[in-house]
Amino acid sequence: MKAVxxxxxxxxxxxxxxxxxxxxxxxxxxxxxxxxxCHHTGDIAPMPLQTxxxxxxxxxxxxxxxxxxxxxPWDADPAYGAFRxxxxxxxxxxxxxxxxxxxGAIEGDLKDAPPPREFVExxxxxxxxxxxxxxxxxxxxxxxxxxxxxxxVPTNFTEDKWxxxxxxxxxxxxxxxxxxxxxxxxxxxxxxxxxxPSGFFTSDAEAxxxxxxKPGQEPPQFQSSREGDLLQTxxxxxxxxxxxxxxxxxxxxxxxxxxxxxYTTLGTPQxxxxxxxxxxxxxxxxxxxxALLIYNTRFTLPAGSSNTMVGARAEVLHDFKMVSMLPHMHxxxxxxxxxxxxxxxxxxILLRVPKYDFNWQINYYLAxxxxxxxxxxxxxxxxxxxxxxxxxxxxxxxxxxxGEQTWEEMLNGFFDxxxxxxxxxxxxxxxxxxxxxLPVNATASTLAPASNVATRR
Length: 457
Known about the structure:
Blueprint: H1 2-18, H2 23-34, H3 52-55, H4 59-67, H5 91-102, E1 130-133, E2 138-140, E3 149-154, E4 161-169, E5 176-184, H6 204-211, E6 225-228, E7 230-234, E8 247-251, E9 256-263, E10 270-272, E11 275-280, E12 287-296, E13 300-301, E14 308-316, E15 320-328, E16 333-341, E17 347-353, E18 364-372, E19 377-384, E20 400-401, E21 411-419, E22 429-430
Parallel strand pairs: 8-12
Antiparallel strand pairs: 1-11, 2-10, 3-9, 4-8, 4-11, 5-7, 5-9, 6-12, 12-21, 13-20, 14-19, 14-22, 15-18, 15-21, 16-17, 16-19
């Protein structure tokens, strides 16, 4: 009996080993979960991967991309934080995809296929309740530098609107470097909102303070942080925000949308007419989602330097929960880190991106929002490569400073926080100015000397 049992086990193992990996049973579920969000008809990816007929010609390319972990794009260091939109593949999923290709990319039985994912053409989030479009087509010239375009469009909302989902939709993605859309309510009598960097709007109080400053002068408390009702950002490789049930963004009655659009040339004349779509919350939210920004505009990347560090930080003025983080640099960016320094003196790395990729700017959503109590310091740091070794460097022979164009540089740490929806927009951050920063590749809580920070102009 023992010999018979061993024989049966051996035969079962042989049959299992001989069972081929097929598209519908094994591969299609992985593509639906990790890839089709971008690889569906009409979206950002160059080809859809929704059917066997669409995927089979790309089998070898799929194998190469997943084996080298180039796809799906996911740059967060797994040692720090857990993220609910993690697109990375497990080893088992990589092995399944590579085995499928190595065995001849067999289709298998259509009956084994999972239910297909459904997409609304042109929209990740589903069918919008309202779509607002910039009023005129923008004509992008064949060559030259295009200043940021600031285009205001009234919402015509007669009541406050809670937004469950929001998505930007350029009509011509190829010429759009980025878009920021902010909502600003009607100004109070005798005041007007001031425009901050990267599409953020300042409060009326800050607008009055800024109006009293001399040209080029900036108050220290606003040097490294900014807050505003930023609704959505469109960046290369980005996807729309993923709000949890009970969370929403607020657009007040009578608000105007300000589109900040950065266009780039392609060598031939182009056109774009960007739209933004909204899905309204079906019930009052439990949490209001608000966008914040920590940034540095006063740095120098010396010509030929390969590892210049730049940092910025701000102090939390009221308790809130951090929901997501979005690093933003340009072509010289190497790595990026968010760190929290708590009132107790303890510190924690919230996100580390060891290999920043300008072409895939991802908003990282925490699996569990992080409570940051009043007095916490949020610090962002990054390294830049302005040397010949950087194949994407526009010009390693020049010193580089902060600037809006792609050949200049930025250090922007965007992040969303959750606050009580019944409280109005009191200031949440205060920029404490320069100080010692933790190296991006550090794992301990010890601080590095301030000399590691890029020179301030």
